[in-house]
Design brief:
The chain is rod-shaped, with a radius of gyration of 34 Å. It has 6 helices and 4 strands; from the N terminus they run αβααβααβαβ. With about 180 residues, the chain is an alpha+beta fold.
Protein backbone atom coordinates (compact mmCIF):
# COMPACT_ATOMS: atom_id res chain seq x y z
CA UNK A 1 0.00 0.00 0.00
CA UNK A 2 2.83 2.29 0.80
CA UNK A 3 4.33 1.71 -2.61
CA UNK A 4 0.95 2.33 -4.26
CA UNK A 5 0.74 5.65 -2.44
CA UNK A 6 4.17 6.63 -3.69
CA UNK A 7 3.32 5.55 -7.21
CA UNK A 8 0.06 7.56 -7.09
CA UNK A 9 1.99 10.52 -5.70
CA UNK A 10 4.59 10.28 -8.50
CA UNK A 11 1.84 9.88 -11.13
CA UNK A 12 0.14 13.01 -9.77
CA UNK A 13 3.45 14.94 -9.89
CA UNK A 14 4.10 13.69 -13.45
CA UNK A 15 0.56 14.64 -14.43
CA UNK A 16 1.06 18.07 -12.86
CA UNK A 17 4.34 18.54 -14.76
CA UNK A 18 2.71 17.49 -18.03
CA UNK A 19 -0.20 19.89 -17.50
CA UNK A 20 2.27 22.62 -16.49
CA UNK A 21 4.36 22.05 -19.62
CA UNK A 22 1.37 21.72 -21.94
CA UNK A 23 -0.85 24.50 -20.58
CA UNK A 24 1.14 27.02 -18.53
CA UNK A 25 4.55 27.21 -20.25
CA UNK A 26 3.17 28.03 -23.71
CA UNK A 27 0.95 30.72 -22.17
CA UNK A 28 3.89 32.11 -20.22
CA UNK A 29 6.11 32.08 -23.32
CA UNK A 30 3.37 33.75 -25.35
CA UNK A 31 2.94 36.39 -22.65
CA UNK A 32 6.71 37.02 -22.55
CA UNK A 33 6.90 37.23 -26.35
CA UNK A 34 3.98 39.64 -26.52
CA UNK A 35 5.44 41.74 -23.72
CA UNK A 36 8.78 41.99 -25.52
CA UNK A 37 7.05 42.80 -28.79
CA UNK A 38 5.01 45.50 -27.05
CA UNK A 39 8.22 47.03 -25.65
CA UNK A 40 9.78 46.95 -29.12
CA UNK A 41 6.78 48.75 -30.66
CA UNK A 42 6.78 51.33 -27.87
CA UNK A 43 10.48 51.98 -28.49
CA UNK A 44 9.84 52.39 -32.23
CA UNK A 45 6.96 54.80 -31.60
CA UNK A 46 9.15 56.82 -29.23
CA UNK A 47 11.98 56.93 -31.81
CA UNK A 48 9.57 58.07 -34.53
CA UNK A 49 8.17 60.77 -32.26
CA UNK A 50 11.71 61.95 -31.53
CA UNK A 51 12.48 62.03 -35.26
CA UNK A 52 9.33 64.02 -35.95
CA UNK A 53 10.20 66.49 -33.20
CA UNK A 54 13.78 66.84 -34.49
CA UNK A 55 12.56 67.22 -38.08
CA UNK A 56 9.96 69.82 -37.16
CA UNK A 57 12.38 71.91 -35.15
CA UNK A 58 15.21 71.57 -37.65
CA UNK A 59 12.98 72.37 -40.63
CA UNK A 60 11.41 75.45 -39.13
CA UNK A 61 13.33 78.50 -40.29
CA UNK A 62 14.91 80.75 -37.69
CA UNK A 63 13.82 83.75 -39.73
CA UNK A 64 11.63 84.15 -42.79
CA UNK A 65 10.49 87.09 -44.89
CA UNK A 66 9.03 87.41 -48.36
CA UNK A 67 9.27 90.37 -50.75
CA UNK A 68 7.31 90.96 -53.95
CA UNK A 69 9.27 91.73 -57.11
CA UNK A 70 7.43 95.04 -57.45
CA UNK A 71 8.59 96.04 -53.96
CA UNK A 72 12.19 95.04 -54.68
CA UNK A 73 12.74 95.97 -58.33
CA UNK A 74 9.91 98.29 -59.25
CA UNK A 75 8.89 96.15 -62.22
CA UNK A 76 9.48 92.67 -63.57
CA UNK A 77 12.07 93.76 -66.13
CA UNK A 78 14.51 95.36 -63.69
CA UNK A 79 17.21 93.60 -61.68
CA UNK A 80 18.29 96.71 -59.78
CA UNK A 81 16.95 97.11 -56.26
CA UNK A 82 14.94 100.28 -55.72
CA UNK A 83 15.89 102.73 -52.94
CA UNK A 84 12.94 101.64 -50.73
CA UNK A 85 13.93 97.98 -51.30
CA UNK A 86 17.49 98.71 -50.24
CA UNK A 87 16.18 100.32 -47.05
CA UNK A 88 13.95 97.28 -46.35
CA UNK A 89 16.83 94.86 -46.91
CA UNK A 90 19.24 96.95 -44.77
CA UNK A 91 16.72 96.65 -41.91
CA UNK A 92 16.91 92.85 -41.94
CA UNK A 93 20.72 92.67 -42.13
CA UNK A 94 21.15 92.85 -38.30
CA UNK A 95 18.63 90.01 -37.89
CA UNK A 96 20.57 87.91 -40.41
CA UNK A 97 23.87 88.70 -38.70
CA UNK A 98 22.69 87.83 -35.19
CA UNK A 99 21.74 84.30 -36.18
CA UNK A 100 23.76 81.41 -37.49
CA UNK A 101 22.81 79.01 -40.24
CA UNK A 102 22.41 79.23 -43.97
CA UNK A 103 20.67 82.29 -45.36
CA UNK A 104 18.54 81.00 -48.22
CA UNK A 105 17.46 83.52 -50.84
CA UNK A 106 14.78 81.84 -52.94
CA UNK A 107 13.42 83.39 -56.12
CA UNK A 108 9.92 82.54 -57.33
CA UNK A 109 7.86 83.63 -60.31
CA UNK A 110 4.62 82.85 -62.04
CA UNK A 111 4.18 81.03 -65.34
CA UNK A 112 3.65 84.33 -67.17
CA UNK A 113 6.88 85.98 -65.95
CA UNK A 114 8.87 85.36 -69.14
CA UNK A 115 7.86 88.34 -71.23
CA UNK A 116 9.53 88.78 -74.63
CA UNK A 117 12.05 91.29 -73.24
CA UNK A 118 13.34 88.66 -70.79
CA UNK A 119 13.22 85.57 -73.03
CA UNK A 120 16.47 86.50 -74.76
CA UNK A 121 18.42 86.44 -71.48
CA UNK A 122 16.58 83.74 -69.55
CA UNK A 123 15.48 80.50 -71.15
CA UNK A 124 13.32 79.37 -68.23
CA UNK A 125 11.31 80.80 -65.36
CA UNK A 126 13.74 79.08 -63.00
CA UNK A 127 16.69 81.03 -64.45
CA UNK A 128 14.74 84.28 -64.17
CA UNK A 129 13.78 83.64 -60.53
CA UNK A 130 17.39 82.70 -59.77
CA UNK A 131 18.64 85.99 -61.27
CA UNK A 132 16.18 88.00 -59.14
CA UNK A 133 17.29 86.11 -56.00
CA UNK A 134 20.94 86.60 -56.96
CA UNK A 135 20.44 90.37 -57.06
CA UNK A 136 19.20 90.23 -53.46
CA UNK A 137 22.05 87.90 -52.45
CA UNK A 138 24.65 90.30 -53.87
CA UNK A 139 23.09 93.18 -51.94
CA UNK A 140 23.12 91.25 -48.64
CA UNK A 141 26.70 90.19 -49.31
CA UNK A 142 27.69 93.83 -49.84
CA UNK A 143 26.26 94.57 -46.38
CA UNK A 144 28.44 92.02 -44.62
CA UNK A 145 26.52 88.77 -44.67
CA UNK A 146 29.15 86.06 -44.99
CA UNK A 147 29.37 84.54 -48.46
CA UNK A 148 29.67 81.05 -46.89
CA UNK A 149 26.21 81.44 -45.35
CA UNK A 150 24.45 82.68 -48.48
CA UNK A 151 22.61 80.22 -50.71
CA UNK A 152 20.69 81.25 -53.81
CA UNK A 153 17.85 79.17 -55.23
CA UNK A 154 15.58 79.75 -58.20
CA UNK A 155 12.31 77.84 -58.03
CA UNK A 156 10.65 79.43 -61.03
CA UNK A 157 6.92 78.75 -60.97
CA UNK A 158 7.21 75.38 -59.20
CA UNK A 159 6.14 76.65 -55.76
CA UNK A 160 3.28 79.09 -56.23
CA UNK A 161 1.54 80.70 -53.28
CA UNK A 162 -1.68 80.77 -55.24
CA UNK A 163 -3.00 79.94 -58.68
CA UNK A 164 -2.55 82.43 -61.50
CA UNK A 165 -6.21 82.92 -62.24
CA UNK A 166 -6.03 86.65 -61.49
CA UNK A 167 -3.39 89.33 -61.98
CA UNK A 168 -3.23 89.92 -58.19
CA UNK A 169 -2.50 86.25 -57.50
CA UNK A 170 0.21 86.19 -60.18
CA UNK A 171 1.88 89.20 -58.53
CA UNK A 172 2.00 87.31 -55.20
CA UNK A 173 3.85 84.44 -56.89
CA UNK A 174 6.58 86.80 -58.17
CA UNK A 175 8.57 87.06 -54.97
CA UNK A 176 11.94 86.60 -53.29
CA UNK A 177 11.94 84.81 -49.94
CA UNK A 178 14.74 85.12 -47.42
CA UNK A 179 14.93 82.58 -44.63
CA UNK A 180 17.52 81.18 -42.29
CA UNK A 181 17.92 77.44 -41.96
CA UNK A 182 19.11 76.34 -38.52
Amino acid sequence: MKILGWIAFLVLIALGLIIYNVKYLPLHEEHTRMSNENKMWQAQVKELQNRINRTDSSQAPLYSQSFLWEDLFGDGLSFNLTEPAQVMLKEIVPKLQETTGEVIIAGHCDKQALVPELKSGYATERELSYAKAMAVLNFLKSWGISDERLVCVGYGSTRPLSGISTHEQAIKNRRVEIYIKP
